[in-house]
Amino acid sequence: MRLAAEATTEYAAGLLGIDRTRLSNMESGIRPFSPERIRTLACNYACTEESYIEALVGMAGGKERGWWERHRGTLPSGLLDIAELEWNAARIRTAQVMHIPGLLQTEEYARAVFTAVLPPLSRLEVELRVAHRMERQQVFERPDPLPYIAYVHEAALRMPYGGTEATLQQLKHLVGQTERESIEVRVIPTSKGDFPGAGHALLYADGIVPQLDTVQLDSAHGPEFTHAEAQLTKYRAHLDWMDAATMSPEESRDVIHKIAREL
Asked: pTM to 2 decimals?
């Protein structure tokens, strides 16, 4: 909002009666904003999008610490950011090529995924990540379950993480999750050939308003986040292509059953 108004950090800090360092920490999410300060800045930035302002005010007004904060200091902050992003999203769409999406993984499958990283993690580090991944799945148990669409490549369904039995149990769990009203799984068949964004794991979180949409990408050094409109437009196009090119939820469920029978 400040950049759109072409306002300097000195100007914004002066409006709030604080120094530039504190303002920078507030803008980066290290320190909290109060609802009153959000409204002060919005007014002086000449922002008239009331829905956007109210969404920010709602975020600033939250007093309860998220469950992920219990893991702060024991897990990388990027993993906690993913949990917070999922918890506050209005909808999640994800595209996975090499493994089942984290929110749909079993404990044994997740353990195999975390064991297969380089440099190797200690047993404690693996177990902390598995516990965190399982806790993330509580977004489906809330009174308002998270709407979730997963585009999963057929190759991911056939990757035997943890061995045959672990993969079989994972596929059975995946089918069970698709019976939830809030969860939809769409398979990208191998026969489809090339597709945009091949090889990239992508999570698109719809915010309460479009200005709060965020994309999270996996990388070897941890999760990366972007909210630049040009990037959001590109990844929305990727997901729109997948929505049109993937199998229906019913066909996808049949394919998962078929692969499970072949194990």
From this structure: 0.90
